[in-house]
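User: Sorry, folds how?
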Amino acid sequence: MERKKLGIRGMTCTACAAAIERSVAKVPGVARAAVNFATEKMDVTYDESRTGLDAIGKAVESAGYALRESRSDAPPADDGQLRGLRGRLIASLLFSVPVFYLAMGPMIGLPIPGALSGERGALLMALTQFMLMIPVLYVNAEIYRSGTRALLRRAPTMDTLVAMGTAAAVGYGVYILFAAASAYTAGDFDGAAHYAHALYFESAAIILTLVTLGKFLETRAKGRTSGAIRELMELAPDQAIVLRGGGQETIAARDIRVGDRLLVKPGARVPVDGQIVSGRTAVDESMLTGEPIPVEKGPGDQVTGGSLNGPGAFEMEAVRVGEDTTLSRIVAMVEDAQATRAPIARMADRISAYFVPGVLIAALIALAVWLIAGSGLEFALTRAITVLVISCPCALGLATPTAVMVGTGQGALRGVLIKTGEALETTHRATAVVFDKTGTLTRGRPSVTDVLPARGTDEAELLSLAAAVERLSEHPLSAAVVEKAEEAGAPHMPAEDFEALPGRGVRAIAAGRTVLIGNRDLMEERGIDTSGIGDTLDRLSDQGKTPLIAAADGRLLGILAAADTPKPESRDVIAHLNGMGLQVILLTGDNPRTAQAIGRELGIGRIIAGVLPGQKADMIASLQRQGETVLMVGDGINDAVALTRADVGVSVGTGADVAMESADVVLSGASLWGLVTALELSRATLRTIRQNLFWALFYNTLGIPIAAGVLYPALGLTLNPMIAAAAMSLSSVSVVGNALRLRRFKTAADRLRKQDGSCPAACETAKTERRENMKRTITIEGMSCGHCSARVQKALSALPGVESADVSHEDKRAVVTLAGPVSDETLRAAVADAGYEATLIERD
């Protein structure tokens, strides 16, 4: 099956979209066709072995419309379309305003030319109004062509209603014009004046002008609803600098090929996805993750097309280009979501299918009833015309897709990718949020949480010896021990004669001492007494931590405890979800002791541990049978089945590709605040859709009977056709305008920042991760005393961007903490200026 998104030209209301769907659905081989009036696009799935785009295009043409080029950078409300409507509107105003003045001015005492006043000027007045009306009909001829084609195909649209109403007004006005001419020729000037006051030329002209005004405002507003896609597309630069043959060449970004070597200058946007080959910088990836803190990048690091480069230049190799880039995939995902119908839209679709035929019938009934009641042809025709022009199927058709467009677009700008309209709607109905643990609620990598030296041993000795041994190991916990030792500034020690002891620990010689690191079984096996630390080991285990016992030459050195710690924002996010009335559940394959410890720390009430991947889906199904609407959050391959089984699957963006493919919502950043954003955005969008549907139904339900004259017998109230046309145009614009209010949507993190000026956990996460990546360990030759250390420390601390510098002449190294981007060359130069040599700079 092939799936295509095709642009449609010529639609004026949802009835047009329905007619295209019916026509295309009849093409053999077409499995599905969905037309979105708001985006003016058709999403069609077809069997390419049975049909093709030519047959689909002919089906669209047979319905009275045409295919157009569909590109993300050519939204429905393009400049050409707006220019055309603006031209029609200006021309209509130039002629309709004088017609309206001549028809209504004398009634309120406004002056008119003498030749057009009085009984003898009545015929000339009527002819003048007729001649001024003709240009308005001409510039709006498309309404008549479109409406007539739709009526002949027995699929009437809004244009059909407007065309029939104004044609009836013009036809009746021409009849009155001939009657006035006949009376004038017979010398009956009083009769001619009476007829001249019953013309409907001003009604036809003003109705067409107001309809054009409504279409102009609606088209411009619809263009703003797709603004998020344009903002995303504008992130990608049009040009890039490619390195070829030893020189630089500026080329169009679309011409970049995989493997091209590119130069990205400071302040420029990264053209495509790739890998840094040389150079260091800080890259603003907020367009992808929603997190405002730039991320340090260097050789080997991945960069994303559309992200903003900081102060450093770098060279990169293009890895993904064109439609394969992350930015292009995000845009495609948002467009797919906007092309799908939310379930709540089906009610509006069903109503719209019968709406226009129903209005035609209502207009005929109004005409017949008032004729039978003896009210005269003029009154009866006015009521029928008013019914035709006041009805607005567009408001119903725009109620849902415009809100979905703005909602999904705002989510994308905040790093929350909602794949379908159905997912957007279902998210707001979630009653239970199920979390995976590792990599979702936690960082996904272990870190040392406790350093507990034994009596007679200090923390520096324990960390130095442990790190010396663990540097030779490939175990995941080893990296955590080494990282902790370097963070604490523990002296660096060499080790040799390393031996891994499977299931128990490791052994090596460090500083001439035999060092063991492992579990209680290893210590007991080597005759090391652990009876005095039994309670401590149990306490650490109860907290979900892994205790590592260290010993040297048969003597206990102490305990290092490691754990996969929660993300900084996890507790706040859980509290926020509880405050939203959602049941929060931890579902993990980890052992119960660890899961319980994490659950207690984060405030999760229900914990299900020791669950296999297949059993996760079964647990989701069990919750659904209990009446829960389940939102599952995960990041790993083992979560894919559960994500698919849940009512809404949410994948954390740092996770596996299969998890993202299985999910309905993707959080492109690592922060869990994106989940809260998705829930709040879904609720806000559905609230807007309900408001739109209510007002669209309320307007039509109230307006059509009043237009038909139901209040006239009791209250003497009628509705002028021109007022009806203005109300019809206003209803569509108001629905789109209400949807655009979602552009002012504020996330929970936004509100927290506004309330106390502090940085919420999502921001703190980014800051923490950045700080962890902004340390440099410099090996320095030539220092021999404390004075040397002081000189180097002073030189490094004076550099802009350096937060602190800790220098030791004994260890021959300096540990520098950065507050901003500082190049290695700058650090080397500062050490050299102090009179020493920086031989090695390592990134921590």
Notes: The longest strand covers residues 555-563. The longest helix spans residues 673-708.
